[in-house]
Every structure is written in structure tokens, then in C-alpha cells.
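Q: C-alpha cells for this one, please.
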Amino acid sequence: MFLVTNLEEKEMKVRKSLLSGLLAAILIIGSGGMKADAADIKVDQQIPAEEVDSVYNQQIDSNLLPGWPAGPNIYSESGIVMDIDSGAILYAKKINDQHYPASITKVLTALVALENSQMTDKVPFTQECIDFLEYGDAHIGMKVGEEISMEDALYGMLLASANEVSYAIGNSIEGGYDTFINKMNEKVMRLGGTNSHFVNTNGLHNDEHYTTAHDMALIGSAAFQYDEFKKITGTRQYTIEPTAITSEPRTFQQNHKMLFRGNRNYYEYCVGGKTGYTDQALTTLVTFAQKDDKNLVAVTLRVHGGGQNSYVDTRAMLDYAFANFSKVPITKEQITDENVKSVEDGAYVMLPSTVTQDKLDVVLQKPTEVGDKQGTLVYSYNGQEVGKVPVTITDKCYNKIHGIEEKKEKKADKKVEEKEKKKDKGIPFVWKVVLVIVGIVVVLGLLFIWLLLSKKENQRTSEKSEDEKAAPAETAKTKGITKNMIDRRERFCV
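A: Here is the predicted structure, written as C-alpha cells:
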């Protein structure tokens, strides 16, 4: 069995003197044959003290926010602490300045690999995966024709920072290496990164390969959502078993010193991270930390004064964030935007005790894809983002986005339209037949009733005539009496 550790980019190139070479040799021997990470040696960084002090004393942007707790000075040209789940920015120093990322690039490589593969997928090593390596580049000695699982490959890339492994990962995804690079840049843009451009999977220097502290925090937060990533980046040591070509196992250690008890850089809340270093980038560092109910990511870029200062900066920033910020719940009742239908359970923003919710600005980011009703409320304080809250938009808002007429508002009009449509269509033929039949029945019924009544009337008339014929004498007698009575009345009156 042979041991390999995180040899960061161009280690041998930075040994510019006999003294530094001797120091490196001593470190190698003292560690049982393991190569020391250049990011932790820093004998190459002969940066004047005044330059280091100048960077350290630079203004912290988040300290300019009214009522915001004052954060620590750092040796990094750029630094950020972000809440992983809400996207709240708690600490900010030049977070949008572009810098070379070095090997923390591999966090993005891992993220894209996890999105486009399974842990059991095979990662083959072709000639091109090996040929680009230069003397001193970080590697674990993979050979042409070897094949390992994606899981083993991710361990080799994230722990040992193996550059040939990172190339093989990109080359193994459908479409090949160039397609993988395109996916990396597309992913950053989807995450909201606007100032990054990546041209390789490993972070070896290229003038067109750059990022920002903010973009790296977005990348790290997205990667941390994968359980596989969290497990790998928090692992201290891993072994790749023998392959068909190599009979010995490969064992290597995590290089992030905050994970190891017993050293001065140990940080009890650290749960993972990734180191980086090139001559051009200086030291870079991504760190994940958990305490109580908070999940944070810290990023430092272009650290001055040696790699040790990256841990000093990270500790100071994380301690500051854990001590000064807490979650403030966001409920539907607190939202005045009429376009919001509901809020995701457990939604919150991160605020210091000195800032209240009523001082926040909020903007609704509406979905644009058909069928998607999930939007985002972005909360900010004087321009600094303090949280993103997932929400569901109303049907009215969705319909307006896609130019769909509102059913509720057009209800009355639609009823009229439906009536008009019915008129335009006319009465169906079947109903016409039914109506004709009903009409005939009604007419026949009325005719029958009329005939029946006429018959009864004729009968009454006939009976009356017979009665008059049967009693003529009585009638005459009655008439005579009446006449005599009239004659008498007339005489009397005279």
C-alpha cells in the first residue's frame, strides 16, 4: 500500500530555494512518506509585511451597513460568510472581486458530477487524463486504462486534490470534457453567479479561469445539499482499493486542517471544506461549519501572509457569524405582496439583533417557465441580501406572467358569451322534434276539451227546449194573471 495526500498545484515549482526544498523534504520524511500540501507550507510567499498589513486593514464592506455588527479584519483580499440554506450574507469583504480559485474549483466539479452521474458509474482513465500533468501537480498516480467508481473518484479529487482524477471525472460524463466545462459555467449562472468563468475541472492556472467569493459561496451551498458531498468533504482519510492494473490500494488524507483534532487549526464546528493554492491565486479556502441550527459556508480568496492565515481568517469570520446572527421566521401573515399565495414551512431570514424585519427590502422573483408557480422572496438590508424565501405565487400572478385571462374576473362576461354561443348554435334538431310533438299534443288536447265542452252545451240547450214544450198551459195562465194585475194597477192609479 502507498500513501498520497493533497499535493496542491505546482508544489515543486514553488520551492525556489535550497532552504525551502530542505524544509519540504523534512516535512515529507516526518509525515511517514506523505507529501505535504503546498497550501500549508507557503515558503514561497515572500510578500512584504506592509502589503500584508495593507490587505488586513482594508475596509470590510458589511461593516458599513448601519446597525450591522462589526466584523473582523482578515488577511484575505476577498472573504464571505453565507447561510447555506437561506443565502443570507452575514460577512462581506469585496465579495464580487474576481480572483483565481485554484483547487476550490473542484467543489464545482463535484457538484456538476453529482448532478450528472451516479456514484456507481465508472470513471475511466485515458491518455489525455494523464498527459496534461506537469511535475509537481497534485495526483494519486492513476494509470492509463485504470477504471474506478465515481464515488472513489470524488474522494480522490476532493481529499487528495488529484488533478488527473478531476480531468477523468469531466471526461466521463456524456458529451465529454468540453461539455462538462459548459455545464460548470451554466450551473454557476443558474445559481446566480455573474462574475465567474471556468475553463478546466481542476483549477490549475489559466487567465480565463476566475471566480468571486460570492459565487464560490453559492457553489458551495449548492454542493452541500448533496449528502454524498457532505460525507466526502468531511472525511479525514480514504482508501481506493486495488484496480485491475494497480495491485496496491491508494490511501490519502483530507487536507483541510480544521477537521483534525490536536492541531492549532482545529475548529470544532467545521464539517468539511476544500483547500486551494497556486502561485497566481495564492491560498484559497472553502469551509463548511455547523452550530446549533445554523449551516454556514465561509470562503477566502487570495490570502496574504501564508496559508496559515486562511484558517485564521475563516475562524474569525465564522465565530463572528455564529455569535451575532439568528434565524427570524417568515410567515404568510407577514407578507403583504398580493402575488404570494403561500410560504414554504420553516422559511426565515438571518439578522443581527440590531436589525428588525420592518427595515428590510423585499423583491419577488417570479417564475418564468410554464407550469412553475414557485417564486422567491429576496430580502435585503441596505443592499445586502439577508435571505431568500421560497413561495408559491397566486393563480392570478401566474396567469398574468403568461398572458392568460383571469377566469374569476371574466366570469360574468363568460356567462354572457356562453349564452350568445348557445344562441348562435340554435336549438338542436332533436329538441325541435320534441317541441313539435309537444305542440301537437297540446293542440289536440285543447281541441278535445273544446269538443267536450261543446257537446255538453248542446245537451243543455236540448234539455231546455223539451222543458218549455212540456208546460205551455202553465205559461199562458201565468201570462194572463200578470196582464190582469197590470190592468188593475193602472185603474187604481187613475
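A few notes: The two ends are 167 Å apart (CA to CA). The chain has two domains: 2-324, 328-415.
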